[in-house]
Amino acid sequence: MSGLGIWNYLIIIFLMMTGLYMVISSSNLVKKLIGLNVFQTSVFFMYISFGYISGGAGPVFNENVELYSNPLTHVLILTAIVVGVATTAVGLALSIRIKESFGTIEEDDLHKMDSSL
User: Fold this and answer.
1) How far apart (Å, rounded) are the C-alpha atoms in residues 63 and 101?
2) TM segments (predicted)?
3) Which domains does the chain have, with CATH numbers?
């Protein structure tokens, strides 16, 4: 494995652990969504790293090329990006509605309100 590949996976692990920490440690709903997006981005980088082939060409037929990269990982990532944007939009919309209804987006305060009812 080359040095760049090791750095690539170290960055993926760092982003993954940072996103997980943000989700677990924060009680703010928007910060949790940001943590989920950071975690999701690390998964995107991981799939793109798996799909990379050194010296491989794009999946377009060319008589001079013998080694092609697999387009499946890139297609999956494009789909995941669209789903991630939609999920983030729904999460932010729900956060706005929660803020309008309860006056806060802090999870601890919402639990206190729920237990007092």
Assistant:
1) 62
2) 6-24, 36-55, 75-96
3) 7-116 (1.10.287.3510)
